Each structure stands twice: as C-alpha cells, then as structure tokens.
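Same chain as my last thread, 55 residues:
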Amino acid sequence: MEATYPEMKCAFCNSPVLIETAKTNERGQLIHEDCYVQSLRTNRDPSANFAPDSD
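reply #2:
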C-alpha cells in the first residue's frame, strides 16, 4: 500500500514540494532548494555587497 501525504507547500513560493526533494530553512519549514537560495539573496544585508573604505 502506498503512503499518501497531505500536500506540502514551500515556505517561500507556496507551491507544492515533494518531501523526497525538499530542504528545510532555518525555521524548519519545507522549501525548494532554489527558493532557499533566492530567500538568502533577498534577505541579505545590502551593505554586505560593499567593501570597506580603504582610507
């Protein structure tokens, strides 16, 4: 007998995610790997992109 699971949604894009391929974010929520990378990019501190002044 095949086990069935309720439809799992990605915490970032809210699309269905297969539990076999899902990752988890820092809060333990299911997320697509690509969505996790995108969430890291959008939540990154913008000032981290700049090198400190070398005066």
